[in-house]
Write a structure and sequence with these properties.
about 150 residues, mainly alpha, about 0% strand, globular
């Protein structure tokens, strides 16, 4: 694997702005009533789609620390085939996936409309911002080749 410039170290001011964005996201999630454990499951799912090993490990561990059941953590990549998630959670995961995969088909109206049936405006906004921020972190980690050490 080729060594790459760590963009966080090369441009610390930009990195700090991203950290600040994460702090604001945490406030938004709290205000919207989004469970912190579930927010880590959402981050985990986006990181799985993007193939970000660093963030996958981080958010799986964070979800576990927040008391998320191991079965939910382990099944998140196959959430459609499970009964571990309620309708609100399923709508949130579907919306996050579409935002993560935005280049393939934008965010289809049917997915957004389904999410809007279960989520308040504040919750919709929080899920959308969470999607944007975790995808930003994934791109920082992947492009800089953050190493996952055991």
């Amino acid at each position: 694997m080729t060594n790459r410039v760590n963009i966080g170290k090369a441009c610390p001011n930009m990195y700090q702005q991203t950290v600040m964005m994460e702090r604001e996201l945490e406030k938004l999630l709290k205000e919207a009533g989004i469970d912190i454990g579930f927010s880590h499951l959402l981050r985990l799912r986006a990181s799985q789609i993007n193939g970000c090993a660093f963030c996958i490990r981080l958010h799986a561990r964070d979800a576990e620390k927040e008391g998320v059941d191991f079965d939910k953590i382990s099944i998140i990549s196959a959430w459609r085939e499970s009964h571990y998630f309620n309708e609100k959670e399923r709508a949130s995961i579907a919306l996050l996936e579409e935002i993560t995969l935005i280049s393939t088909k934008q965010v289809p109206d049917n997915i957004y409309d389904e999410a809007a049936k279960y989520l308040s405006e504040k919750e919709l906004s929080a899920i959308q911002w969470l999607s944007v921020v975790i995808n930003l972190w994934n791109r920082i980690a992947i492009s800089s080749r953050y190493i996952v050490k055991h």
